[in-house]
Structure formats: structure tokens, C-alpha cells
TrEMBL record, chains A, B, C, D:
The keyword Nucleus does not apply. CDD domains: cupin_GDO-like_C, cupin_GDO-like_N. Gene3D superfamilies: Jelly Rolls. Keywords: Dioxygenase, Oxidoreductase. This is Cupin domain-containing protein. The lineage of its organism: Bacteria, Bacillati, Actinomycetota, Actinomycetes, Kitasatosporales. The keyword Transmembrane helix does not apply. Residues 100-166 form the Cupin type-2 domain. SUPFAM superfamilies: RmlC-like cupins. InterPro entries: Cupin_2, GDO-like, RmlC-like_jellyroll, RmlC_Cupin_sf.
Length: 360, 360, 360, 360
């Protein structure tokens, strides 16, 4: 019931009394509900917004100097707080995005939760995230997973600080009251620093899987998606496009989706992750989507138009696209973007499409 | 990160300045977040609560006298507003429940939306809900579906008023910004009053389906689940239990789930519906569930203990069980209950289970 | 490699020697294989054929006089032996069909096997098939299931004989070497004669299922699909067609599929079953199918054209449609037909469609 | 109904006449069927057998001299003819295996069929298989796919001959009458010789997929599984095992399954493919399987015991394990084996398991 109801009863003492009785009985009359309740199309409170890497990183560094990391606070993370969401540390109505920062030699203690998480590395290296005992190196361009229910902590094995993007489904699991949390070891259980995680050694072979183990897992068992593979896949798509062959999203637009190798579907039950590469001068105007997304510029620069506003964006900048907001991207120079969204939630619940066209 | 963080930096001017800069950049530091963010177990704002049919119905009747129903207001419905949810017309964090009331000869105009809906009839008859042009009679004990994207309106073809329960996923679709709404015909398109809907004529034959049409539909194509079938199924389960045969939930507890005959799964992508019958003196103490439910007593009486509180409940009373709240039911006399929940949301997104036990 | 290979080497002593050496090493050269190996389209050895009920029943009766039924022989069943299959007791390459006959008071002892089975009753009543201890009455028009791995036996509780159709996937399970068989009790474990089986009491409620038990079962847990429901569904479809509403296969052609209520899919992993009703004068010319089917006329009469041949068929007559054979049915009077096929095998293995059209 | 029926009627003139009438009406009485019909456990006609690479290759070479390859004969392939299958060119009841041989500069013309196919390269290189216009290099250790319905031909771009293993589901598609075949171009449409196929350029990136295209495909879109990846995966599994970590089949036994990256399931709807590595002295005694398999030794040597017989096997030797036959493998030196089976057929049709244990 969107917009201003037209048939409202005339005010009267009786009506006022009735409304008081409603309130007393914990009832809300539908006919006075504002258009918020069931709008003509998604009307997210979250708004389009851009966070500048050039501002985030210095703040993270200052936090590194002033704020210790340890049990209780758990993580030195700065959450993007969408201006439309009243100060909540949520990037969109369903997605959490934060910059996490770990100084030389620091550790973020182990814990686990039902919330699904990943990390994406915009720059730097030297931190290992330890997932159920498996140390996973974090390097520029990598996507690292911590599916729900896995213990995890991080440690910086170098003498340089490192910052990265954390993505989680915290707002969503909070909205559906499904979050469980548990502390783990205060000190990282395995501080070894292998170049490849055990998970990759088992799962990062194209088209192959161990012959044992469950046929399907709800989240990807592959803990790390390395930049060298992502970059190669994007490069090949554009080369194929140049040869007139299919595979890319367009002649100047390559895009890969990160998948769960046991199902071919999304990496996490609630989160889709993709990487896009637009050639210089290329534009991308996707269909409007039900559901929200967060983008981070990995390299290059261009313009992001979201709804009515446009922003010039470059390396490290983050922007959010609320549900049903129009988006267009234009690359000034070759533009690489990481993107994550809540698409699996909408698709699995048959909510990813708008109303069908009316048949006359 | 639940409970009181232990390692907080000492207050200082530098820190205060840093926090101001965070706020300026729309950032929220994780380490100051309250335990709300990631609690040890679901900590729903929704609370256990009971609404009394004996109070609801008179209020609906008074609304019937004072408030017209028509385009704009759309429905004369009184939504249960959970006391924990700040006045929002939501029964739980994901579920909408309302009493709808239609006087003699009245019509609620047609519209459609992506939100999924059903009606459950606690008493009375005489209203037809018209779903995409198919008039569906509503009678005591019936469950009637209006899956998302179907046009629907209601009309009362008798000279007696009728009230019933509406269930929807409005809070959930709002939380994920997936709601679309569209007006339809102002007057009901088909005011005929057949005893059986077209949908039932096609689909209400046990184990049979038309040989044509899509193999699977996201929501049930069966618009009406009639009380005579529900009652028979419950009766048979208890009779089988008396014969020492399996099928019932317990020796004194029958339970059926309403299904989508094209998949065998839940009736709607976001809502599960069940009917329970407890014999006099029987108790039911289910495992705690992730996700919330609304129950309505159909007949009989007993006690519902939710969390720390207990209520005596009888015919028509509604109560909500927030996520992870403990529930126990005790039947004073034979107790029939209708129940709906958000279980499909949690299950499809792998959020229906808590953290596994720790392996020592 | 269909039809006559064009490039064959000239005969020579060397070639003859080579072929001898092939044979010695258990090798067969592909280039001499006849067109049978990979024909342009399915070239089943099974041929269209009709078996007359008027001939089958007297033979079954004579067998009833001369041949006892008991452990070892297990069943007094006469299998349809497709004339193209060299005397094998197979109706088609994948399907078994037989007339089973049980005299007054007789019992067919219990056994179980991985092969999936059903019974369809063309006439009579009085036999109970006991499936894992659940006695299931058999009556005219009923479809009764014995999914693989369930113990089952039959007993005739009356003083009249009874004959019916057995359908199994024996040829298929033999072809893939997947058959296991085990004897059960020599005497029927439960000779009670309830009108409704336990299975129906639990599962034959439209759109309902017990709230407990596995979400999905590979075969239907509903042991009996009663004629009254099948007939009602067909009657409704034609009535809807008369009202200009969708659901039937055509204006004069109703068709239902029997389903597994836990999945909405086929009753058995390897067998699809349907019931068709053609009004007098109606014709049905389905698309050619990959996979074979057996039809039995339940009532009425008409003409079945299969491939190049046409047969006049009436009550009880059985006919087979081999893979990719053309079929057309014409009803002289209202014509009711039961049909089963191997469609699930082909569909689950992506073999149900021919080659796509060539893109020029 | 296995083994000798015990209750047979005494011979008589009446019975003889009845049997004649059965035959006349194309009926076979079940009670006289031999134990073949429904044996206690799978009783495949296919028998364990070994084909020696040392014998196959010279025969293929001789065929190369005497037999041209071209339209009509289509392929210079020598099919393994299981000694139990009466001279049919079938390795098992469901699987085809053949050695194909292509001389310098030769071409095998293009065609397509619904039968699914793959190639596995035991040695050599220099042939490109062109799948729907995509040239795919074949090199030692590679697995190359030609899923059903794709045009394909082969050409040898070098001046050395090449032989490899072809695997298909021809016996199965014949058994279910689902084969369609069509000629394509007589000359290979693209004789370029890229090191990587277009398919690999799109799909051979671990955990990544193009963001466009169908969510799921019935067969793998990845045309080549390269030895370097298979070898690396096996090597890592054994290294993990040495570190006491899970993933391998056993401490001395690594095994990978080739998968369809769009589903995580088997490469082809009807065929499973795996690669096994046994360390010197290791043994492997798998559970007996319903369904058949073909193994080829890739390198190393050892002993294969199948049923009652044992064979010493080494590089290139092929052996078949019929359904339900016992298998044990013992490695004399490190033993690498390629294996393909019909497991997807059995699993998708719920036929992969024997009868459950009896509950007493």
C-alpha cells in the first residue's frame, strides 16, 4: 500500500478512541500505515554513497596507533555506515563492509560465528588469516573466505601494517535473528606462513576435486581465490572478445564470478562476489537489480553514477548500490572492480525479480 | 563480538578526535560496537507476546463500523505489533500477522505485490479471495494462499461480517528491500462464489498433478488447503499412533506441514505453515529454532510457555515465538494449533542451525 | 556411424590377418560396425505391438488352474514379450509389463528387490498387496506402488480370482546390472484387509505431509493412487476446459501425472505414470519421445497408430510405443488410458531430447 | 526370482498347450524364467578382463597402415569387446572404450551425437580435437571432453602418429534407445593449433566462472583437464597426507574426481572420471560398487585383482570391473591410474546401493 491512502475515515472521537485501543492491544491499523510498508518498488533506507580509500586508510592507521586489538574488541575494523541507516555500521540493509587494519606482528584473536565473511585485499600483504587451523596468506587482489561456523583469526607476520576489506552478512543475519558467536583461542593457533593454504592445495585445481568428502557443501571449501587467476581469467575474456568469441559481458567488459567448486554456485549462501574489468572508455549500465551491492575499485579510475548522483572513483574507493538503484559505470582508464552483493538471498527466495509486466 | 569488550583504549583527546573523524567519514569502529552486533546467540528485539482473540475481534468489529475499506487503504487489517519492535506493525522480525475484517457485501480491492501472503480462517465463512481471477472460498480451518506477484482481492458475499488471519513476509521483504506493489482492479474481477476454486479443481487431488505446466513452481499452485483434509490427516496420525505405527510427532501429537505439490517443499519461498494437534494433557517441548514463528490456537486450550513466561491460551489467541526462544506447549483439553514460520528463509540460506559443538 | 560406411579398405590378406588379430585381442574395429552402433535416430529393437486383454485374461485363468504360486516361482505373472526383443520377457528395452493372476485365497510370497514396481488394476478387486507390512487394497482403476527395496507380497482375500498389470524397470536394471533380490516371509506377514493403507492415511491428503520424516524420498511414500481421485481430476480438467480455463492437455483431452509428494516429481526414480482421458472423437498426436512407453486402455475404445501400423483398441488392451516411434490416438468413444514410461531415466541423464536443429 | 524355482507344476499336455499359447500371444511366464531375470545380486554378463597396451598399440599401428579414416567409417578406433558380451564392441554393459589412432596429417571428420564422449591420452601429443569449433590440444595425461550434441572431429597436426583412449556411453544410450547421430563437416572446420582451447581460457581458472551464461549446464563446459593440474592435485594430496592432514583417500592413496564447474558434479551426465595415485606398496580395496568401471594404468605397475582373478598391470593396460565385482589394487611401484565409470547413471536413478541390511 504505497503512497497516500485516499479513503480515510473522517477524524472523530470514536476513531481516536479506537486507535488508542489498538495501541493498547499492540495493534497497528494497516490503513494508516505510511507508504513505507509496501512501496511500489524497493525504497531502501540505504542510500548511494562513496567512501574514499584516501580517507579510510589514514584513519585506519591512526586507529592502529591508538587502539589495541585483542579479545573483546576482537578486530580493529572500521565499518562503512550507510548515511541512510541511522548510524548503524551497515553498508547496505544486508551487507557489512569494513576496513580492517593489523599492525606489524599484531594478532586478531580467533572466534567463530554463523555470519559468513570474506576479505578482499586492495593492497599489501603479510597477514595470514587462519581458518579452522589453516593459515591463508593474504595478498593484493586475493579474495579470502571465512564461511559461517569456521574459527578464524588473523596475524601479521611482517613488520609492515596491512589493511583490507572485510565483507559480511551481519545486517542480514541480524535482521533474521540468526547470529551465533563464540570465542576461540586468544592466540593464533598456527602462525606458520605458507604461501598456499591447505584448502588451496586440495581445491584450487581447475575442474578437479578430491574424490572423497561431501558431494556438496553450503559454502566454498576453497579459502583463497588468488589474483593471478582472477587477472588471467579477465585477460582471457577480453582476448576472446577481441577474437569475436563469446564469454565476456561485452566487447570491452570482462567479468568473473567466484564460485563454490562443490556446487558451481555462489561462494557463500548469502553473498555473491564478482570481479569486473572495463577497458578505458567502456561503459556498463546493468539492469537494475533487486538487492544491494558494494563495489571497490581495485585499480584504474572512472565514474560511477548511482541513482541521480555521479562520483569520480579511483583505486580503493568503495561505493554502495542500494536495491533497485540505477547504476552506470564509465571507465576513464582501464578499470578493475571487485563487487559483492546479496544476490543469493534474493534468488534462493524467489525475490530477485520485480513484478512481471501486465498482460493487457 | 558480544558482551563488554575488555581491551578498550584509554580515553584521550587523540582518541576523541579520531572518533569524530570516523563519524565524519561515515565509519563506525567495530571495537566500540555493543554486544548487539554479533551476540553469542540470536538476541531478537521481538519478544514473546500473546494477542487475545477476545480482544482483537471486537476491535476489528469497531473498525468495521468506523473505517471504510477501499483503494488506498486497501485492507481493513489490524497488524500485530510486537512490543519489542518499537511500534512497527510486525509480529516478528520477519513475519507479518494481522486480523482482517470484511463486512457484509464489502470488497477489498485488487492489487499484487512480491510479498508472499496467506490467510488462515479461525471462524466464519462467506468471503471469497480472488487470486489472479480465481475465486477461492474461505471457510473455518482453511489455509488460503496468495503467493507473491498474484493479483488478489477479497469480497464478502454474505450478510455477515468475517474476520481472519493474514500472514505475510512483509518485514522480511522490507529488510532485504525486495518489495514491489501494484494496484489492480478497484472492483473484484469475478464475484462468483464457487465452492471450489479452479486451483483446487486442478491441484487438490492427492499425489496427482496436471500432466502439463512447469515441472516446478516457486510457490504452491494450490490456493486452498481445506480444513476437512487437515483434520482428516491429523485424525489419522493419532489413530496410527494408537496402533503403534509411525507418522505422528509423538503418541499424543499429530502434525502436518502444508506443501507445494510441485516440489514437496514449503508452500511459499519464505513461509512454512503447519498444523498441530495435541491431545488433552499432552506436552510439546520442541528443540529451540533459529527463526521465528507465529501460532494461533484453532480450538481447545492449554498453556504456552515462551522463554520465561507462560500464558493460558484458547481459541483464536495468537502468540509469537522469537528466534531461539524456548517454547513449551501443554494441552489442557485437545488443542489444535495453526503455526507459520520463516523456516524456509533460514534453511535455504544455511542459517537454520547454531554453531556446532566444539570438538575437544 | 550409421548406414553403410563409404571408405572401406580393399580386402587383402594383410587386412584379414589384422582382423583375426583384433578378434584374438578382443577388439572390434569401429569402421566395420554396422549402422546399429550409432544410428541417426533411436533404432529400437523393440517394435510397436498390441496385446489383447481378451486373450491375456483367459490364459492367465488357465495358468491359475495349472500353475501353483509360491516360493521360487514367486509370482503367477505373464510378461509381455516384445516381438523385437528375441523372446525376452520385456515389453520395451527398459520396461517390464506383465499380467499377474491370483486365485481365491492364494498368496504370492514376500520378497524385495532394487527393481521398482507398480500395479495397475484394470478390473476386479479383493487382493491386498502388502508393502513393508502395510496392506494395500487393490481395486479397479487404482495405481499401487512398490518402490525398490521394499518387501512385498500379495494375497487374495476373496473367493474370486483377480488379475492386474505389473509394471517394473527390470529390463533397465538388468541393462545396468543393478538388480538385487532377496526372499522375505513365505506367508504374508499381515493378512488384514483394511480399506485404506497406512501409507494413504499418512500421505493421501492433498497438499499435506507429515511434519516429520525425511524432506525428500527417492520414491513416493504414497502406496496407492485411488481411482476416485484420478477420475475426479480428469473430470475437473475437462470441465475447466469447457469453461475456457487452462489445465487440460487440450479441449478434449485431460491428463494427470502421478507424483511423489515429497518432491513433486515422478513416482519412481525410473518410471513415470500418467492417466489420459480423450473425449469421443478426440485425437492426440504427441511429439515423438526419446524413451519408450506402455499404454493400457482402461475403458472406451479407439485407434492407436504407432509408427506405420494402426490398431483398434478397447478395454484392457495393452500397446507399446518404442523410443522415437510416432504415436497417434483417436477415441471412438470416450477413451481412458493408463500409461507408464521410462521418461525419468532419460530426463535425469539429459538424454530426453534429440539433437538440436542446426544453426545455418 | 533368482536360482532354481522350487514349485513348478508337473509337466502335462495341458501345460504344454498353455505354454504354446503363451508363446503365440507373445507372453513369457515369469515362473519359468531362469535366475537371470532378477538375481540375488548383479550378475553382469561382462567379465573382468585386461587389455594390454603392448598388444593394442601395434594393432592400431597396423590399422593405420591398412585402413583409411574418413566419412562413413568416421574413426580409426578399436573398441574393447568384453569377452562376456558376445562380441559386442562394449567394454562393460554401459561403457564403450576404444583405442583411436590418427596418423601424421590425418583427419577424422566432424560429426555429433547424443552419446557423451571423452578422450584420455596415455602418451604422445599433436592431435587437436575440435569441439563445436574450438580446437583442443591433446597431450599426455590430459582428459578431453566431447559432451553429447557437440560437433567434433580430430586432426593430427604433426608428422608422428598418435593413439589415445576414447570413452563413451554408447552401450548405455543404445540400451535405452536414446542415440541420435549427425554428420558434420568432412574437413575439420578449424585446423589451428592453439596450446589452450577457448573453453580452457574461459573455464580453467580455479573457483572462477564467467559472470554470464547459464547457471548450470548438464555437462562440463571445460573441454580439457590438463595433466599438470591433475598431477599437482595428486601430489598435494599425498603431501597433505604426509603432514597428517585430510584430503587424500588414504595415507598412500591420492584421488581426484573431474567435475563440471557449473555444478560441482560429474563431468558428463552418464560418466564419472577419476584419477588415482597409489604409492609403491600401497593397496586399495574399495567397497564393491553397483555399476561398472574401466581403468587404465597411466604409469607405474602393480597388481589388479578383480573378482577371482589377478593380473599384473603396467603402463597403458586397461581393465574392466563389472558391476558388483570385487576389486583390489596393489602398487608395485608408484601407480597412477585413470578410471571412468557409469556411477552418475546409478546415483541419479537411486540404484547405486544394494538392498539395506535386514532389521531383525
Amino acid at each position: 500500500m504505497p503512497s497516500s491512502p485516499t479513503e480515510q475515515p473522517a477524524p472523530s472521537d470514536q476513531l481516536r478512541a479506537l486507535h488508542q485501543d489498538f495501541a493498547h492491544q499492540r495493534l497497528v491499523p494497516l490503513w494508516t500505515a505510511t507508504g513505507d510498508l509496501m512501496p511500489h518498488h524497493p525504497a531502501p533506507r540505504a542510500v548511494p554513497h562513496v567512501w574514499r580509500w584516501g580517507r579510510l586508510l589514514p584513519l585506519a592507521e591512526r586507529a592502529g596507533e591508538l587502539v589495541p586489538v585483542g579479545r573483546g574488541g576482537e578486530r580493529r575494523a572500521l565499518a562503512l555506515a550507510n548515511p541512510g541507516l541511522g548510524g548503524l555500521p551497515y553498508a547496505t540493509s544486508t551487507l557489512w563492509a569494513a576496513i580492517q587494519y593489523l599492525g606489524p606482528g599484531e594478532q586478531a584473536p580467533e572466534h567463530r560465528h554463523t555470519q559468513n565473511a570474506f576479505r578482499f585485499v586492495i593492497e599489501g600483504e603479510g597477514v595470514w588469516t587462519v581458518v579452522d587451523g589453516d593459515p591463508v596468506a593474504m595478498r593484493r587482489g586475493d579474495l579470502l573466505l571465512t564461511p559461517g561456523r569456521h574459527f578464524h583469526g588473523h596475524h601479521n607476520a611482517t613488520d609492515a601494517p596491512m589493511a583490507w576489506l572485510d565483507g559480511l552478512d551481519v545486517p542480514f543475519t541480524t535482521a533474521v535473528d540468526a547470529g551465533f558467536f563464540e570465542y576461540g583461542a586468544e592466540r593464533i593457533t598456527d602462525i606458520s606462513t605458507p604461501a598456499r593454504s591447505r584448502s588451496e592445495r586440495l581445491w584450487a585445481h581447475p575442474g578437479l576435486r578430491p574424490a572423497t568428502g561431501p558431494a556438496e557443501l553450503p559454502a566454498s571449501p576453497l579459502a583463497a581465490y588468488r589474483w593471478e587467476h582472477t587477472d588471467a581469467a579477465l585477460t582471457e575474456q577480453l582476448a576472446l572478445a577481441d577474437e569475436g568469441l563469446p564469454g565476456a559481458l561485452g566487447p570491452d567488459h570482462a567479468a568473473v564470478r567466484f564460485t563454490n567448486p562443490t556446487t558451481g554456485g555462489d561462494i557463500l549462501p548469502t553473498i555473491r562476489a564478482e570481479f569486473h574489468r572495463l577497458r578505458a572508455e567502456a561503459e556498463f549500465v546493468p539492469e537494475r537489480e533487486v538487492g544491494s551491492a558494494v563495489w571497490q575499485v581495485f585499480q584504474g579510475s572512472g565514474t560511477a553514477r548511482i541513482g541521480e548522483q555521479a562520483w569520480r572513483v579511483s583505486r580503493g574507493d568503495l561505493f554502495v548500490v542500494p536495491s533497485w538503484a540505477g547504476l552506470s559505470l564509465a571507465a576513464a582508464e582501464e578499470l578493475d572492480l571487485f563487487r559483492f552483493s546479496d544476490a543469493p538471498i534474493l534468488e534462493r527466495l524467489d525475490l530477485a525479480t520485480p513484478l512481471p509486466k501486465r498482460t493487457p
